[in-house]
Write a structure and sequence with these properties.
Radius of gyration of chain A: 21 Å
Distance between the termini of chain B: 30 Å
Radius of gyration of chain B: 21 Å
Number of helices of chain B: 12
CATH class of the largest domain in chain A: Mainly Alpha
Structural class of chain B: mainly alpha
CATH superfamily of the largest domain in chain A: NADH-ubiquinone/plastoquinone oxidoreductase chain 6, subunit NuoJ
Number of helices of chain A: 6
CATH topology of the largest domain in chain A: Four Helix Bundle (Hemerythrin (Met), subunit A)
CATH architecture of the largest domain in chain A: Up-down Bundle
Largest interface: A-B, 23 and 28 residues
Number of domains of chain A: 3
Number of domains of chain B: 1
Order of helices and strands of chain A: HHHHHH
Structural class of chain A: mainly alpha
Oligomer: heterodimer
Chain lengths: 168, 350
């Protein structure tokens, strides 16, 4: 096992452990903060896979944006209602049912993974970084998608401002 | 990696990587001591008093005394705090500010990780600080901490936007996000620093207003990002005791403290890299060897740390509504205009 693999398993371990924390902890706040380590681990995995830009974007968007939003939501609502938010326990039927379904899914996916003849594309090794390639593709091949996404975000932004102003 | 002297000296093995990681850590500790002394002395200079005078010559070993005091203080964990989160928060905070040191080039021969997305990376890891502050504020089970945490998060998220625009402008100007590339483009004396529009013919001065605006926006934003006065409402003593670190004491408080000072250096270093030529000597090739580059870099960065301290003891604190007004209604439009100006210059540049 070389160093890179070691780092990969380290990040994978962080991701799995913290994701389990997200799912299994009863307090919503713990779940939210557990998500921090999941996002961080996934960013690390991207970095190991040479996708440096994606790794940074992962931290930027998920940790800096979405996670803060989630924490804000949980923090503000739990103080407003005055109840500690905990995720409810599931009944025994649900518990067994979901276990069976997940196990079946796992089996099915493993089966697929092992039997299907995957057609893998040639790995394109970009000279220095994925950054230049992403920039070029965004402004040439995917420029329409890029613009549509930008306009969508702008609409959401204006809408949010409008809703926030309504009170005044 | 030719940009790293340590790898050249000791070879590509795990020990040299450990050394590379350790150098910024040692630097942060030494720097924090200097900055504490600077804070005390600048404060007393501004307020026309002597400051600490009894610990060593003119009080120069006062910061060591302060740190020893913090270390031997009892580590109190209040009874009703949320223990796991309360104990994790200082670490998250410190990780956030220390992670930024990974891409800060102290010299052309020493940059811990020569990332191609360096500038963007620094910006991204600063969001860890928001999480750390929210974690500390929420878990302390204290109204003041909670308020401080929320204020801080709102402030940092808002100020990130104009700051991102000024980083974007620098990226457009240098056509790169790599720290070393950005600095190398500013070679040949202070005339070619990005604050003067980078290297180019004389009419780059027409774009001087835009670069100046961007610099000011970035610097003001960085003050808000590090919770320094005039934007220290997350820890406004007269309103909410000490904000998110009200309940912290001893070693854990020291972690918050170190993180704040490390952050101050990071933003100052970024100002230096983005607008003032990083490790470039101001006189072109004169005194521009790798060792002197460290000196230039530290001089420039410490100057901005000094400006931050100076501002802290000069300016009053802004109100929360004023804070939001400044970023959304003043800085953001100016940042957009300045970004357009710089983008035009980047396009026209020969």
């Amino acid at each position: 096992m070389n160093t890179l693999e070691l780092v990969f398993y380290l990040f994978a371990f962080i991701v799995v452990l913290s994701a389990m924390g997200v799912v299994f902890s009863r307090k919503l706040m713990y779940s939210a903060f557990s998500l921090l380590f999941t996002f961080f681990g996934v960013a690390g995995l991207y970095a190991v896979l040479n996708a440096d830009f994606l790794a940074v974007v992962q931290i930027m968007i998920y940790v800096g944006g979405i996670l803060v939003l989630i924490i804000f939501g949980v923090m503000l609502t739990s103080k407003v209602t005055g109840v500690d938010i905990v995720s409810g326990g599931t009944g025994k039927t649900l518990y067994i049912g979901s276990t069976v379904v997940s196990a079946a899914m796992l089996f099915f996916l493993t089966y697929l993974y092992n039997t299907v003849n995957w057609h893998l594309p040639e790995v394109t090794k970009y000279s220095e970084t994925s950054l230049d390639a992403i920039g070029n593709l965004l402004l040439t091949k995917y420029v329409l998608t890029f613009l549509v996404a930008a306009i969508l975000l702008l609409i959401a932004f204006i809408g949010a401002a409008l809703i926030a102003r309504k009170g005044n | 990696m030719e940009s790293n002297i340590i790898l050249q000296l000791f070879g590509d093995n795990i020990w040299s990587y450990l050394i590379i990681v350790a150098i910024p850590l040692v630097f942060v500790i030494i720097y924090a001591l200097v900055a504490i002394l600077g804070e005390l002395k600048v404060a007393s200079w501004v307020q026309d008093r002597l400051g600490p005078m009894r610990t060593g010559w003119k009080g120069v070993i006062q910061p060591i005394a302060e740190v020893v005091k913090l270390l031997q203080k009892e580590d109190i964990t209040p009874k009703n705090v949320n223990k796991p989160l309360f104990n994790t928060a200082p670490f998250v905070m410190f990780v956030g500010s220390f992670a930024a040191f990974a891409v800060i080039p102290f010299s052309s021969k020493f940059i811990p990780a020569d990332l191609n997305v360096g500038l963007f990376y620094v910006f991204a890891v600063s969001s860890f600080a928001v999480i750390g502050i929210l974690m500390g504020g929420w878990s302390s089970n204290n109204k003041y901490s909670m308020l401080g945490g929320i204020r801080s998060a709102a402030q940092m998220i808002s100020y990130e936007i104009p700051m991102a625009l000024s980083i974007l402008a620098i990226a457009a100007l240098s056509q790169s996000l790599n720290m070393n590339t950005i600095i190398e483009l500013q070679n040949g004396g202070f005339w070619n620093w990005n604050i003067f529009g980078g290297s180019g013919p004389w009419y780059k001065l027409l774009f001087l207003p835009f670069t100046l605006i961007l610099f000011l926006i970035y610097f003001i934003g960085s003050l808000a990002e590090t919770n320094r006065t005039p934007f220290d409402i997350p820890e406004g003593e007269s309103e909410i005791v000490a904000g998110y670190h009200t309940e912290y004491s001893g070693m854990k408080f020291a972690m918050f403290f170190f993180a704040e000072y490390a952050n101050m250096f990071v933003v100052s270093a970024l100002v230096t890299i983005m607008f003032f030529g990083g490790w470039q000597s101001p006189f072109g090739d004169f005194l521009n060897d790798p060792i002197m580059q460290i000196v230039w870099f530290l001089l420039k960065s410490m100057f901005f740390v000094f400006v931050q301290i100076w501002l802290r003891w000069t300016l009053p604190r802004v109100r929360v509504d004023q804070l939001m007004y400044i970023t959304w209604k003043v800085m953001l439009p100016f940042a957009f205009i300045a970004f357009l100006g710089i983008a035009t210059w980047a396009m026209l540049k020969p």
